[in-house]
Amino acid sequence: MGESPFRDDLFAGCRVLVTGGGTGMGLAFATAFAAHGAQVAIASRNDEHLAAGAAAIAKATGAEALTHVVDVRDSESVAALAATLESEWGALDILVNNAAGNFFAPVAEMSENAWRAVVDIVLDGTFRVSRACHPLLCKGRDASVVNVVANYAWGAAPFVAHSGAAKAGVLNLTRSLALEWASHGIRVNAFCPGVVPTEGAKANLFPAPEMEQMITDTIPRGRLATADEMALQVLWLAASDYVTGECLVADGGQWLAGNPFYTLGKQIAD
Ligand code: COA
User: Domain spans of the chain?
Assistant: First the structure.
């Protein structure tokens, strides 16, 4: 990862779980925590992704990541993940609910199974993992949860309505848990990243190269985000002891500019 403004040992002694941590942004989050002294666990459905992810973390930081295959759509699988963390660590300090699934599909043509698949991963999965980890977080130090959302959660999400509805639900769940768990010593926040050209995003959300430029044109900052800079935002949120129930947006100004006058005005001005 690139240069960090944080102390190398900021998360020394912290135990961190990142779901969807084998690839993409989740892997960048886990790597950044490890680079700042944390013990990290990465969990995902795919054993090969986890092995490659753990190797990447070891190469970048020298740390040995715990890996665990999990399907966040399956309560028993999630319970097994929590049981492993209990026996390995006995507690959890930071949970990053990053696992997600998304694809373009107009609602009129979307099967119920397609809707269900995304909502089950994004919204129900965040609920399941948070609930299963709650006893471990209660035993953690300065515990907190970071739920990854998207900037279409508070606007509209045309053609990704399943994801938009699910992320809006996660944002509301974040606020509810922030209040429910405040007296348990657990902060709960959301993080809204910008568009990062990970392999998953490129394959599912902008498969054609010109689409990447179209997206870049919607971002006032003038470029896509990097996974490493997004990871530093998650670290900041996890380290901010007086912040709970918030959503930190790091999208280069994209959502603020998301109306037709911006696109039109920008074309005229350019
Ligand atoms: N367009 C339309 N429908 C799709 C679709 C697509 N690209 N991908 C999946 N679906 C539908 C399937 O047709 C199926 O519905 P059906 O039974 O009525 O046909 C339903 O969604 C479930 O699909 P399935 O193939 O069983 O997928 P899954 O349940 O194993 O996984 C995802 C669903 C979302 C995880 C899968 O699409 C995926 O792996 N996506 C890539 C990972 C990803 O999204 N990363 C985030 C990128 S930002």
Answer: 15-197+226-252
* pLDDT score of 57: 98
Domain 15-197+226-252 belongs to what architecture?
3-Layer(aba) Sandwich (3.40)
Q: What is the mean pLDDT of residues 114-119?
A: 98
- Catalytic positions are 152
Does ligand 1 lie within 6 Å of residue 200's CB atom?
A: yes
- Pick from 98, 117, 110, 82: nearest CA to 44: 98
Which residues lie across from 28 on neighbouring strands?
none
102 lines ligand 1 (CB under 6 A): yes
Is 146 within 8 Å of 237 (Cβ atoms)? yes
Note whether 193 and 167 are within 8 A (CB). Answer: no
Whether 99 is in the pocket of ligand 1, judged by its Cβ within 6 Å, is no
Query: How long, in residues, is the chain?
Result: 270
**CA 111 to centroid of ligand 1, rounded, Å:** 10
How far is residue 50's CA from residue 193's CA, in Å, rounded to a whole number? 22
Q: Poorest-confidence range of 71-75, 188-192, 217-221?
A: 217-221
- 62-114 pLDDT per residue, tens: 999 999 999 999 999 999 999 999 999 999 999 999 999 999 899 999 999 99
Q: Tokens at residue 35, please?
A: 């680079």
* 239 CA distance to ligand 1 middle (Å): 35
Closest C-alpha to ligand 1, atom 42: 101
Question: Which residues face 96 on adjacent strands?
Answer: 18, 146
Asked if residues 133 and 85 have their Cβ atoms less than 8 Å apart, the reply is yes
Q: What is the mean pLDDT of residues 217-233?
A: 96
Q: What's the angle, vertex CA 80, arms to CA 79 and CA 86, rounded to 5?
A: 90
